[in-house]
Write a structure and sequence with these properties.
- The chain contains 7 helices and 7 strands, in the order αααβαβαβαβαβββ.
- It has helices at about 1-15, 20-40, 50-60, 85-90, 105-115, 130, 155-160; strands at about 75, 95-100, 120-125, 140-150, 165-175, 190-195, 205-210.
- α2 (about 20-40) packs antiparallel against α5 (about 105-115).
- The radius of gyration is 16 Å and the shape is globular.
Length: about 210
């Protein structure tokens, strides 16, 4: 099954204009299979079996790669079933990764994913991100932040930017929204890019850069 799934992932990537080498396709297939196994028992996340659902899970996260540093640390907020964090980590293994998740069964899955896939320099933090900001070692400690499926207000963005060092990026995987929804999100954040996601109607990746003072 993983080998057939990896071929399917490579086809979806090609349709999206993304180059997906076979080793990464195999690793992504192993992640998808693990999520399917856990999802059958615990209903961790909505996991569509059609091509659109598979692309959203494993291919869309790769749109973040051009905006990530070659090295450094990424923090993912509300990691849930592991996307976009795990596909990004598999594609950029030299990045350190922290995944933040408040729900216990999803924390358990994420920790099993780290073990099962042998992800190095990867940590799962249990708790709400608002509470974790009280830990001084996490403030301004990351080169980039990703978030998907978390409701964002301007106040939430103000808090989230505290995880990111000056010059770092906030990468927001968003649904259909007004074009200027993030244009004045925070005085400390500059909008760098808005990238349509392949195959996702009206959805996109919004990239905000934390200004250096």
């Amino acid at each position: 099954m993983p080998s057939r799934l990896s071929d399917r992932l490579r086809r979806l990537a090609e349709e999206a204009g993304v180059l997906l080498e076979e080793p990464l396709a195999e690793r992504l297939a192993a992640y998808v299979e693990l999520l399917r196994q856990w999802n059958a028992k615990l209903n961790l996340t909505r996991l569509d079996r059609d091509d659109a659902g598979l692309a959203r899970l494993a291919i869309e996260p790769l749109a973040a790669l051009p905006y990530l540093p070659a090295q450094g640390t990424l923090v993912d907020i509300g990691s849930g079933g592991g996307s976009p964090a795990v596909p990004v980590k598999l594609a950029r293994p030299e990045l350190g990764l922290r995944m933040v998740e408040a729900r216990a069964r999803k924390v358990a899955f994420l920790r099993e994913t780290v073990r099962h896939l042998g992800l190095e320099r990867t940590e799962v933090l249990a708790g709400r991100y608002e509470a974790l900001l009280s830990r001084s070692e996490l403030r301004e400690a990351h080169d980039a932040l990703t978030v998907r499926g978390v409701r964002l207000s301007r106040e939430a963005l103000r808090r989230l930017q505290s995880f990111v060092a000056q010059g770092g990026a906030l990468l927001l995987f968003r649904g259909p929204e007004p074009e200027d929804a993030w244009s004045n999100a925070s005085p400390a954040l500059a909008r760098e890019a808005a990238v349509p996601l392949p195959g996702a109607r009206g959805s996109g990746l919004v990239v905000l850069r934390r200004r250096e003072v």
